[in-house]
Specification:
13% strand; alpha+beta; 3-stranded mixed sheet; 6 helices; 43% helix
Amino acid sequence: MENLSGKRTVFGQFSGKPMAPKEQFLKKKNLSGLEQSRGAHNNVTSILFFCAKIFRIVGSEIMEKVIITNNPLIKEKFASTYEVELYHKDYLGVLETVRDKIHLGHELLSHPLAGSIKPNETPYRTILISKNKKQLDMKSLTIIESAIETTKKFIANRPTPDWKDIALFDFQTVDLSLIENVLSNLI
């Protein structure tokens, strides 16, 4: 006899669906298709794998990338291999620049809020967008607009501190690490 789930339907009856084996609950596949144990889930990695998987290939062509940043370490590291646009703006200014580029037809290739550092804690943000322009991508526009609103809420609640140089370098390094991970997954 099959072991049925004890879940009741809306009408109070048992669903009658077979219960999943215990092994199914211990492991699950993440967005990149790899199995991982529950509890070992890393939000940053999930976002990065999501972005890499969703935006890796459009049709049959690999998308060329433009790096939009306010982090000088990014320009220093990637200027010889990617098109890097370095802006002397704050975190919110970078998001707004990316939004303007999305309106021109570029697509997001990385999530604008990737990482575990809150928008009001770091002054640095690096975002990948497509080099080629197409028609307005509503998904990219929705994501960037939501990121801008979230950032505004964080900054209104608590402005970004005026960090010392050593802390700024640490934030630059974290931002660099995040974008390196995205780029390695997009290739």
